[in-house]
Amino acid sequence: MSAIGVVSSCSCLRPGVWLLKPGMQKMSSFGLHTAARCAAKDYYEVLVLGGGTGGITMSARMKRKVGAGNVAVVEPSKTHYYQPLWTLVGGGAKQLATSARPTGSVMPKGVEWIKSQVTALDPDKNCVWLENDIKISYKYLIIALGISLHYEKIKGLPEGFHHPKIGSNYSVHTVEKTWKALQDFKEGNAIFTFPNTPVKCAGAPQKIMYLSEAYWRKTGKRSKANIMFNTSLGVIFGVKKYAGALLEIIKERNIAVNYKHNLVEVRADKQEAVFENLDKPGLTEVHQYEMLHVTPPMGPPNVLINSPVSDEIGWVDVDKETLQHKKYPNVFGIGDCTNLPTSKTAAAVAAQSGVLDKTISLVMKNQLPTKKYDGYTSCPLVTGYNKVILAEFDYDGQPLETFPIDQSKERVTMYHMKADMMPFLYWNALLKGYWGGPAPIRKLMHLGLK
Q: pLDDT of 272-281, one tens digit each?
């Protein structure tokens, strides 16, 4: 999972629900904000759905436009996670606790935090419905609901995680199981999977594979590990420049790649993983494993499926350049929940936030949006405990690199950027609405030529 900005990431998970009694307030470590089980008002000028990366970032930006008392965020979770760090948590290089902060501490001061879940959207009436039939109306709506994990779509999961030898860096409940399985590895197949759905941070499923390989080399177990990357895709990575670099690493480290192989069942009691060959539908293969890392199928949140704001699949249907809804001009989307045709990362959210800020400013003035999002996204491909390939690219899958060097090369500097610099930038700049991606830095670095 990537970091942010130059090196950015996947959006935060919302693993739990935290409901406070009506009227309760919480003091954040950065100041006082309103936090209630029920909304203090039934109308807000700007209503933000979701308190992950995109939601917190945009609420901070909107606060500066319309005032804190006119902005509300609907988010049930008491904890906000910086999920890009979970690649390193699964590899034993970081502690899980360092990725978490109370939601109250990242909520912009004065912004209303409604601890509830959205149950329905009614954009024709400019309102949404929350739990307990609470209705909230708005003038402008920003949808930042993220993406949902669906372990249950794999037979034998999530209950299979109660067994050893299996983990997943995509959930707060299973990421430490990855590190445990990595440490406990003795001899046999180590299998890493990629599902047949869109995912957030498409590089993450193989990052943990490279870390595992490096760990076993360090501990003298590499010769006993048959490492396999079973992916439902037909390529190792969607951008040719970085794919070539990764294939060289895969060859050098003797890793087997099985394309068009989708995980459909886990028999955790037998340590067996069942894959369907997507080129031959119905044909399955059973692989014994000593370690299994699962990347779950993902999809739009249930509340967006068959919603008036969504496309036929369930993603928020926005203009790919302005992030304004295609039908409802006072509705906007950001991040993983949208149908923007780019990789779902927090780097993308950072770049989108700057564009969306300007889009909403012009809409509020009854003017047409002019700022255009180019699809910028980033994935720091961790290839070892001190190496990263910094992939940056646009809608067309063309490299859009920040630095005037060949970023397809493994670099120690890029690793420290991901592991150390980007978490600081995330908490102190992006979530406060001050980081809109590395475009200005890129322009400076390339003397205005990019």
A: 999 999 999 9
